[in-house]
């Protein structure tokens, strides 16, 4: 086999038809990281002895020191990892080529599913080829970051993925009961979701800028420019006029129900009615009445302030050949009890299902499945959408130049130590200033 340079169009054509196609291995993502992080770009192809292209890789690279470089192939390499001999051939050829070009190492995080888990973290399915792949990687000098549980790697190792269908009824019927309940409530409160084809990043950024999504407007503008038309923005709207009307309807219905329950209890007719059940239902109904009453007050205020309606949530997606990735799914905290992200997810699943996409990636999670974990509610909210938890094999460094790699690791350790010392000094100075202020 031999390694060849590919034109952008040649690479995209191969990557689009690769079985594990993903938006990270695309010229769109390459241009995005070139603009935002200053990477240089190279597209490599792997050709067999008959001249057939059987693999490819987007290589993003930077210079580290003394003219030596490192490369990153996000979600690459694009080869068949079930063929152990192919891994060996490609790695040996890649090392030989890149060593001549003064590369120290190549970072990869291939889309190799190691296992599928349930909500408790128990293994449902295990990829039997994983151990053979890991063994071959080790033999070839790959350094594994490990089976990390959190966000120690460049890209997450744990994702939640849902299957799509062109029939919206099938999508909905496969949801968990609690998800259906949330969707029903959101619909009753006059929330709707629309795809915004204007490409107005200013409006999108204005809505999310105060969230914990710490990215600049320039970042999102570059993302949009790089992936358009495969990037889409959705908004969840609250129709304030309908909100007032629906809030009153719900209150009136509950009030009627509450009166009937009160009549049953007052009748004391234990033969005709289950009095204890009526008492329990009345307690629940009293709470719901109070809830709907507050809704009427808040909805009336909102109508006066925003007669044109309110944006309550926003989502941003990127499409690949067979599926879609939700990169942002954010709701205004003031409307979190209205299940905005749930209705956004559902409407996006319907939208992309009609476009015949096969799956939607709901985003990353951690590998900590403890019910006491701060991340557990997020996990549960994503699993209700007929979802699967996928654990990927992880992140590796293919060491090209072992001697220079040791120097690189020492430099990185030294930088980390300096940062830790500076941070410690900052905390020390801050605490002393606080102490002085308190004394004054």
What can you tell me about this protein's structure?
The chain has 440 residues and is of the alpha+beta class. It folds into 3 domains: 170 residues, Gcn5-related N-acetyltransferase (GNAT) (Aminopeptidase), CATH 3.40.630.30; 124 residues, 3-Layer(aba) Sandwich (Aminopeptidase); 52 residues. It is built from 13 helices and 16 strands. A 9-stranded mixed β-sheet has the order 7-6-15-9-14-13-12-11-10, sandwiched between helices. Strands 1-2-3-4-5-16-8 form a 7-stranded mixed β-sheet, with helices on both faces. It is elongated and about 90 Å long. The chain starts with a strand and ends with a helix. The C terminus is likely disordered.
């Amino acid at each position: 086999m031999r390694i060849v340079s590919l034109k952008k169009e040649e690479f995209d054509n191969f990557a689009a038809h690769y079985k594990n196609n993903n938006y990270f291995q695309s010229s769109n993502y390459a241009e995005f990281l070139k603009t935002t992080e200053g990477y240089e770009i190279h597209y490599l192809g792997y050709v067999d002895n008959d001249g057939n292209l059987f693999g490819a890789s987007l290589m993003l690279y930077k210079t580290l020191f003394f003219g030596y470089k490192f490369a990153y192939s996000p979600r690459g390499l694009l080869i068949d990892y079930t063929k152990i001999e192919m891994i060996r051939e490609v790695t040996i050829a890649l090392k030989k080529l890149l060593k001549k070009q003064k590369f120290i190492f190549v970072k990869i995080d291939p889309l190799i599913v190691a296992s599928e888990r349930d909500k408790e973290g128990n293994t449902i399915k295990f990829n039997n080829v994983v151990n053979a792949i890991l063994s071959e990687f080790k033999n070839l000098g790959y350094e594994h970051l490990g089976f990390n549980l959190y966000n120690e790697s460049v890209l997450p190792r744990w994702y939640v993925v849902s299957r799509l269908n062109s029939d919206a009824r099938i999508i909905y019927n496969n949801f968990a009961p609690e998800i259906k309940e949330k969707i029903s409530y959101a619909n009753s409160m006059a929330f709707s979701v629309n795809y915004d084809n204007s490409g107005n990043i200013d409006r999108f950024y204005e809505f999310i800028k105060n969230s914990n999504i710490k990215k600049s407007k320039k970042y999102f503008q570059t993302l949009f420019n790089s992936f358009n038309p495969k990037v889409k923005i959705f908004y969840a709207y609250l129709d304030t006029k309908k909100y007032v009307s629906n809030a009153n309807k719900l209150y009136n219905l509950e009030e009627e129900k509450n009166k009937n329950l009160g009549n049953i209890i007052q009748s004391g007719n234990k033969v005709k009615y289950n009095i204890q059940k009526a008492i329990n239902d009345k307690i629940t109904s009293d709470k719901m009445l109070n809830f709907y009453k507050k809704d009427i007050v808040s909805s009336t205020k909102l109508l006066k302030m925003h007669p044109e309606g309110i944006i309550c949530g926003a989502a941003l997606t990127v499409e690949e050949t067979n599926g879609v990735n939700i990169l942002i799914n954010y709701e205004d905290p003031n409307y979190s009890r209205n299940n905005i992200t749930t209705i956004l997810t559902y409407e996006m699943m319907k939208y992309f299902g009609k476009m015949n996409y096969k799956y939607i990636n709901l985003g990353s999670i951690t590998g900590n499945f403890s019910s006491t974990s701060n991340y557990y509610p997020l996990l549960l909210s994503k699993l209700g959408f007929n979802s699967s938890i996928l654990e990927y094999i992880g992140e590796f460094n293919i060491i090209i130049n072992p001697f220079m790699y040791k120097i690189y690791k020492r430099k990185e350790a030294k930088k980390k130590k300096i940062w830790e010392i500076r941070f410690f000094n900052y905390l020390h100075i801050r605490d002393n200033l606080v102490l002085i202020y308190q004394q004054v």
